Amino acid sequence: MRTDEPLPAVGDVLAALATGLWHWDTADKLVIVDAEAARLLGLPAASATLTEAQTRARLHPADWNEITAVVQLAVAEGTLAEVRVRIMDEEGTVLRVVRSRSKPSYDAERRAYVLTGTLQEVAEPGPDPAGGRTAVTGPWRRSREAFLLDAGRALAEARSTAEVLRVAAGLSMPGFSPNGLVVFGVEGDRLTMIGHHGHQSDEMGPFTSMPLGLEYPAAEVVRTGQAVYLSSPEEYRDRYPVTWPLARPFGRSSWAFLPLTVGGRTMGAWMAGFAHTVRFTPDERAVLTTVARMLAQALSRAETAESERELTEGLQRSMLPSLGPEVPGVRIAARYIPTGGGLQVGGDWYDMIPLPAGRFALVIGDVQGHDVRAAGLMGQLRIALRAYASEGHRPDAVLSRASRFLHGMTNDEETSDPRFATCLYVAVDPVSGRLEIARAGHPDPVIRMADGTVMLRPTAGGLPLGIDPDADYPTTRFALQPGETLMLCTDGLIETGGHDLDSGWLRLRSILERHEDDLEALADALVQGVHGPSSHHTTGPLADRREDDIALLLLCRPGPGCGCADTVTVRPRVRRMLHSVGQDEPERIAVARRNVRDLLHDWAAPDQVDSAELLVSEMVTNVLVHTDADALLLVEVVEEDGRRRLRVEVFDSGDDLPHKRRPGELASSGRGLLLIGLLAHAWGVDPRGEGKSIWFELYEGPGEPGGGVPGEGVPGDGESSVVEGP
């Protein structure tokens, strides 16, 4: 051809080479083909405009997905999109295999891909020696799809940067798994290493921080946003001679450096190094690019979550108190663990408030909700409780004022978001161990006795704070004995893991009973036993996932069996319980029965436990019905010569002594002392300086009751003017 002759038209040249032209705009959903492209698609050899559906009908279903993935990869890398596809006839038979090559672009405004490319028939591929690793068919594609699904699920579940890196290190890519990974981030104008796998830490020193302008593949990826693939050491050395000496000692054969991009921003780079040669085919690049996208999303989520946790810790640290200096005569431990949702802020709290005369108050509570408003109300309510306590009010008055305060804050017209709060307020005298407790809808406290026995300590209570501004909160008083531990907690510690209050309490009791270490270790054991590892905000990071907030307070009086470092660790052989029942509190008889059963939870003879419950009920009821006094119940379990003895004593201030009676068959009273005589091993009535006490004893194990001799001071069998209860 002479140089002055015009070149033939492009279409004529391509037609002579059996190559068709096509144009695809995904916004219009139209594909324009010339005559040769139409013929290759199995259509009449004439130019045509096809819909996406008409074009897709000519292709093998799996290959359409392949085209979509390759186009996205080519746009991301700025390369050509090349893929082999199978052309099908109406019966589903493969007519031919064609190769499509195009240069795609992405229109951000129209959110559409625009492609112009060629189609050319190729020989149908035969069996692949690598086990079906082709772009058209074979088990490699299926394993690739399964791998990407598993990788996506695992990375989506990772909640921290460390978890994301562990997941990335464990990814086993189909047919070309890397033996070394490095994740790089960006800090200012420097490339920093976030984490690595498959390397010794002492080998990674040069990679921990590099200038972004350095001729290093990861730095170039961050600067340009384009992936870098290096199939051989020679290629690495030729393209990056300055930093090749850093990579050479690792002895790898191929490298892939991919951008970590989120929302159009390149936040870092991911290096995958291979011990074997990798050609980085379009399929392999597609897998690596997809993993890089998922990895970037996971790291972005982890970064956001960690920032939220840091914010949460700061907020909680500013709102929760320090327990301050040790208080002589007692030991105190506390834990606060937030929920795993949102910013991990909620309404649970605890506090320790100094009171006059060396006393102090422990407060624990839970404001309704797990949001920022709940946290804000919690802070305000805590300040109000401190103010009311510092004014010298008794526990009942403190809670009454706090309820009125919260009701006024959350029930005005402007907020239209009424909230309530549960609360438990305990005034403590550390010298005597005397406790005064007022409760507002909160779980009852728990006592761990010196011998390890654990019991709920039911206390009188009122409505949660904020519901009724005029609510009343009665006070319960009892003493914490040396060696005993008081536990206060919010319901998050009890009800997590699908448990209700009953089953959750049994789980906590088991932890409390078997633990023999100091108070701090016991606090950790309680939290870890129901939630997994976690810690106080002053000693370590917050756990990642929580079903509900947790607040926990432990108070113990040092003594034998309490586990404190400055006390004898051998548990005593006595367990003791005091319980009062007022004339206007007959419902507390049921509480007394339950306390007795809890105290005897490990008693060998269940029939004796039933007998003890019955007799306690009889004795307390007699005091309430036949005197004007309140009843005080003392229960002791003492081990003597390898055998345990139960002693129950009921005190009252009445002067009249009970007498045995011979009630008729229809009599409704007069059987109390008869039951004691039949069921107890020993019993008696002891006059006091003011009032009297009635007592009985049971010895654990075999042995017929009823043979014991009544104690001194018991009247004879003659009837008394005192009418005994049933």
From TrEMBL:
Pfam families: GAF_2, HATPase_c_2, SpoIIE. InterPro entries: Bact_Sigma-Reg, GAF, GAF-like_dom_sf, HATPase_C_sf, HATPase_dom, PAS-like_dom_sf, PPM-type-like_dom_sf, PPM-type_phosphatase-like_dom. Residues 703-716 have a biased composition (Gly residues). The keyword ATP-binding applies. One of its GO terms (molecular function) is protein serine/threonine phosphatase activity. Residues 717-726 have a biased composition (Low complexity). CDD domains: HATPase_RsbW-like (cd16936). It catalyses: O-phospho-L-seryl-[protein] + H2O = L-seryl-[protein] + phosphate. Primarily acts as an independent SigF regulator that is sensitive to the osmosensory signal, mediating the cross talk of PknD with the SigF regulon. Possesses both phosphatase and kinase activities. The kinase domain functions as a classic anti-sigma factor-like kinase to phosphorylate the anti-anti-sigma factor domain at the canonical regulatory site, and the phosphatase domain antagonizes this activity. This is protein-serine/threonine phosphatase.
